[in-house]
Every structure is written in structure tokens, then in C-alpha cells.
Amino acid sequence: MPAASVRIAPSLLSADFGRLAEDLAMLEAGGADWLHVDVMDGVFVPNLTFGAKVIETCRKLTRLPLDVHLMVVEPEKYFDSFVKAGASTLTIHVEAAPHLHRQVMRIKELGAMAGATLNPSTSLETVREVAADLDLLLIMSVNPGFGGQRFIPRSVEKVAAARQLLAATGSRAVLEVDGGIARETIQACWKAGADTFVAGNAVFSAKDPAAEIAALRALCSERA
Ligand code: DX5
Ligand code: ZN
């Protein structure tokens, strides 16, 4: 039996924008827990995606919580408009957040869940002082910027260390992993302590995305 706390969060980046309404309805019916929304500014990462307008459109098309991942510099510029557009969670990169505590508090003040995320090369120590204030900690298991990249194996140890850090700081944050999550990689991350999994390519390239969501979830069972 999969654990009740497992969340599968398909990434909008891999959706077919010509059939967005159908894709979102299919994910919702297929048992997705959250919709992961990758916002890229072409500065923090070498790719451009979407902004408030698309978040607003998704908010109208689905009841799934919108898990917004901000791969942008000066993320605070977007907090108000993105929460207004319907973001449930705003996750910012510590590499782009010199005042992480202030930024986390501002997101919470606006009524959204506040997340922090780390590039693969960034130490977990950068979030220790704010861990207890976080609603979500996201471990990047690829270098952000593109879907469909290969999972970096060392990320499993980082997830385990993140789980320890959350326990040591008394944090109740969701522990999410993003990048290269598929049948081959999800179980190790689950066993290491992650509870929430972004999956773009794995879900959308599957013949039957709903069955893929179920298969990913089924791989997250007893940790022992
Ligand atoms: C990468 C994004 C990811 C990406 C995941 O920069 O943050 O959310 O969409 O896609 P897959 O699952 O294909 O690696
Ligand atoms: Zn992402």
C-alpha cells in the first residue's frame, strides 16, 4: 500500500499547451495531487516559460493545488501577482534570495505556502536557519532550466540529509524532489525521506499518464 502522504506533482512544462484544458482534466482524473508550475525568466536559468497569466488560466482549469517553482532572479517581484493569480505554493531558489527569511515570511503573509529550493551544487546549510519557517523544501535533482534531464544520483543522499535537517530543526515542511523523477529513481528518493515528487517527462511521455502516476505512487511504499 502506498503511504498516504505521497504526493505526485506533474509538471506543466511537459504539458501540451494546445490541449491544456484536456491535459489538466486528465491529470486531475488520473490522481495527480498537485500541479507543478515551472516559472523561468531566462536570467536565473537559460530558458523562458510563463507568468501570472498562465497561472490564472490553470487556476480556472483545475482544482489541483498549484505548486509554483520560481526559477527567477528577484522572485519577490512576482509574489503578489502570482498569489493573486492562484498560486498555492511559491518556492524560491536560495541562490536568488539574499533575504530568504524576509521573502519566506512575505509569501506566508500573502496566504500561500512558502518553499525554498536548492540547486544541486548548493549546500543544505543555506536553509538551516529558516527550515522551521518553511512549508516546503525542494531538492533539485537536476540543474534547473529544462524538463527531461537525467536524475543526478547524489541527490538521494541530499534528500536523506534534508530529511535529517527538517527533523533536527523541528520543521514540518513538505520534502519535495524535482528533476528526472521516474520509475527508476522515485523509490530511492522516497526511501531517503521525500514525500512529494515532481514528474514531467515521466508522466507526459507515458502512453497512459494516469497509469504512470499510479505506478510512481505505488513505488512509494514501506521505507524499510
Ligand atoms: C526543471 C524543472 C522541473 C522539470 C521536471 O528545471 O524545475 O520541474 O519540469 O521535469 P522532468 O520530470 O522531465 O525532469
Ligand atoms: Zn520545477
Q: Poorly predicted ranges (pLDDT <50, ≥5 residues)?
A: none
Helical percentage: 25-40%
Overall average pLDDT: 97
What percentage of amino acids are in beta strands? 15-25%
Number of helices: 8
- Reading the helices and strands in chain order gives EHEHEHEHEEHEHEHH
Number of DSSP E strands: 8
Which small-molecule ligands are present, each listed once?
D-xylitol-5-phosphate, zinc ion
Which strand order spans the largest sheet, edge to edge or round the barrel?
1-8-7-6-5-4-3-2
Rg, Cα atoms, Å: 16 Å
Characterize the biggest β-sheet: 8 strands, parallel
Terminal Cα span: 13 Å
Shape: globular
- Regarding quaternary structure, what we see is single chain
Class by alpha and beta content: alpha/beta
Task: Compile the SSE list and pairings.
Blueprint: E1 7-10, H1 20-29, E2 35-40, H2 52-61, E3 66-71, H3 79-85, E4 89-93, H4 100-109, E5 113-118, E6 136-140, H5 155-168, E7 174-178, H6 186-192, E8 196-199, H7 201-204, H8 209-218
Parallel strand pairs: 1-8, 2-3, 3-4, 4-5, 5-6, 6-7, 7-8
Zinc ion binds at residues 11, 36, 38, 69, 178, 198.
Describe this structure in words.
With 224 residues, the protein is an alpha/beta fold. The protein has helices at residues 20-29, 52-61, 79-85, 100-109, 155-168, 186-192, 201-204, 209-218, and strands spanning 7-10, 35-40, 66-71, 89-93, 113-118, 136-140, 174-178, 196-199. The chain has an 8-stranded parallel sheet. The protein is globular and about 45 Å long.
